[in-house]
Design goal:
Elements: E1 2-3, H1 9-18, E2 27-30, E3 33-34, H2 42-49, H3 53-61, H4 68-80, E4 84-92, H5 97-102, H6 107-118, H7 122-135, E5 144-146, H8 175-185
Parallel strand pairs: 1-2, 2-4, 3-4, 4-5
Length: 187
């Protein structure tokens, strides 16, 4: 398996054509995160720090099309090199770019991003996201690896399907986790 970030087809081409790995690999795996149309870039972080978690949910619900180029990129790479396709990590990326790049943050945006990730409407966002992965063939030949199972939210993001292990037994459980359970059951 060869992995790459789906934001750069060029990198995948360099790995597969420039190294001879295309003849050895059988799967190309991208990382198609859903960032609600760049919600965490510098300008949007400043804006969403002044809004509410409901506004974040609304943006996510209205911007699924922004994901199409990332989903298409992995598919094009897989077809170009005659490889099966997978996702080595995926999920929502409702986080601040500045926290990821340099450790800075906007505390109000952090609070809103965490609240949105925990909000009950996140269930539908995750279900829609999983269905979008499925319709783009990310679940056809290999497992879709969601990042991550458990993790406390912070300024760096709310990556976990659960905030802590015992949350699995809570009713209701975390909306992202419940969406995965229901998706796997075909609900």
């Amino acid at each position: 398996m060869i992995s790459f970030q789906v934001v750069s087809k060029w990198v995948a081409d360099q790995i597969l054509s420039g190294t001879g790995l295309a003849g050895v690999a059988n799967i190309v795996a991208g990382a198609p995160y859903y960032d609600c149309d760049s919600i965490g870039n510098y300008a949007n972080t400043a804006l969403y720090a002044t809004l509410t978690p409901v506004d974040i949910i609304n943006r996510c619900n209205n911007s699924y099309a922004s994901m199409d180029p990332w989903l298409t990129t992995n598919n094009v790479v897989a077809q170009t090199y005659n490889l099966s396709m997978a996702a080595y990590e995926a999920g929502t990326s409702i986080s601040e770019v500045q926290a990821i790049y340099n450790g800075g943050d906007n505390p109000s945006a952090t609070v809103n991003f965490i609240a949105a990730n925990r909000a009950p409407p996140m269930y539908e966002i995750y279900k829609n996201l999983l269905n979008k992965y499925k319709s783009a063939n990310y679940t056809q030949n290999a497992p879709l690896m969601l990042f991550s199972s458990v993790g406390l939210p912070s300024k760096y993001g709310s990556w976990g399907l659960l905030d802590y292990m015992d949350q699995v037994a809570e009713t209701p459980t975390h909306p992202k986790f419940q969406a995965v359970i229901d998706f796997n059951k075909g609900i």
